[in-house]
Design brief:
This protein is of the alpha/beta class. Helices cover about 40% and strands about 10% of the residues. The longest helix has 23 residues, at about 200-220.
């Protein structure tokens, strides 16, 4: 695997926060930009969630009516789409979707990807694929490739502009998958991609493993007594003297839901903003039992957090309960979120989750 950047998809996310920048650069400006982008994407999350439910319900009705094929007629943002009967040329413009397509066994049908997908998964994709900036794609070049379908992420339209308008106008099926705000919406996206690509059976298999994994985690999490539940501070960014702001996950994010399901208490769960900013002083006052971070930009991030000045009396620091969680598995809203949940669960409650295996381990 190539070197991973920070945060993909949550934003993808979707929370979900997806990495929209390249390697290197200023860590704090990157975190701020990522959080602001994700926050902008969340403006329409509630509407998109309703649309997703309606789209999938409609597809289910079509199947029950006895149609030979149940190709979606709307994408998960509610746009009308016409999916070709045969899909053999796919463009993926989000790493979370690219990962899912690879796991569906469709890597050889991918003819182009976004730059982050190439960074993360290039070793598992055909060589020399054209790559595009997900925020400013080259529509003319995409149209020239004549894809059967282009999968896009809600992140690309977070600025309020349809950056794929010319692709749609050219008659190419452009299917948008909004940033997931819940674990259920991630399952919906797996089903949707499978239905669009002729891989419905494999998608159902993946979705079943995903849902069973969550159910098993939640069953154990629900069994943890209230007086033993640990408080967790999830950090997207690491505070510095120049930029002490910390970004985290608040209400209506699948990350907060994931932390809750494994039996812990997210200290930012009641924040109205999906991606709230917290002052360093406020974070210290929260006194978390555990700190989880997906910061890929800070060198040796765990030791950096353990040695932050002024944090010496925080319980997580005193007990060295500070853990890095793989950013790509947690921040890309696909089936591998289960892998991140298992990783977090074993960090927080090693005894309770000792025997749990990752169904998506690679």
């Amino acid at each position: 695997m190539k070197k991973k950047n920070v945060l993909v998809g949550i934003l993808s996310t979707t929370l979900a926060v997806a990495a929209l920048t390249g390697c290197g650069g200023n860590s704090q400006s990157t975190a701020v930009t990522t959080a602001e982008t994700a926050a902008a994407a969340e403006v329409t999350t509630a509407q998109e969630a309703s649309t997703q439910a309606q789209t999938l319900a409609s597809a289910a009705e079509d199947t029950e009516a006895g149609e030979e094929t149940a190709l979606p007629t709307k994408d998960l943002s509610g746009n009308d789409i016409t999916v070709p009967e045969s899909v053999t040329k796919i463009i993926s413009m989000a790493p979370s979707i690219t990962r899912l397509l690879i796991d569906l066994g469709l890597s050889d049908e991918i003819i182009a990807v976004d730059t982050n997908s190439e960074d993360y998964y290039g070793d598992e994709l055909p060589a020399n694929l054209p790559t595009y900036d997900m925020m400013q794609p080259d529509n003319e070049s995409i149209v020239a490739l004549a894809p059967d379908i282009v999968f896009t992420s809600g992140m690309s339209s977070s600025g309020g502009t349809d950056v794929y308008a010319s692709v749609r106008a050219a008659g190419i099926c452009t299917a948008d998958i909004p940033s997931a705000s819940s674990l259920e919406e991630i399952a919906d996206s797996i089903t949707f991609v499978g239905a669009c690509t002729g891989a419905a059976e494999k998608a159902e298999e993946i979705c079943t493993e995903y849902e069973n994994g969550i159910a098993e985690l939640k069953e154990i999490g629900d069994g943890i007594p209230d007086d033993e539940k640990k408080t967790v501070l999830y950090e997207i960014s690491t505070p510095t003297s120049d930029s002490p702001t910390i970004y985290s996950a608040g209400k209506d994010t699948y990350i907060t839901e994931a932390i809750t399901d494994i039996g812990a208490t997210s200290l930012t769960a009641e924040q109205d903003d999906a991606w709230p900013s917290i002052s360093e002083e406020a974070a210290i006052a929260m006194n978390p039992d555990v700190i989880l971070t997906t910061d890929n930009y800070t060198e040796d991030v765990v030791n950096t957090l353990l040695n932050l000045s002024g944090w010496e009396n925080v319980t997580a620091i005193q007990n060295k309960d500070v853990y890095y969680v793989d950013a790509n598995t947690l921040n890309q809203p696909n089936q591998h979120v289960v892998s991140a949940m298992i990783e977090m669960a074993k960090d927080i409650y090693p005894d309770a989750y000792a025997d749990l295996e990752d169904p998506f381990a690679q």
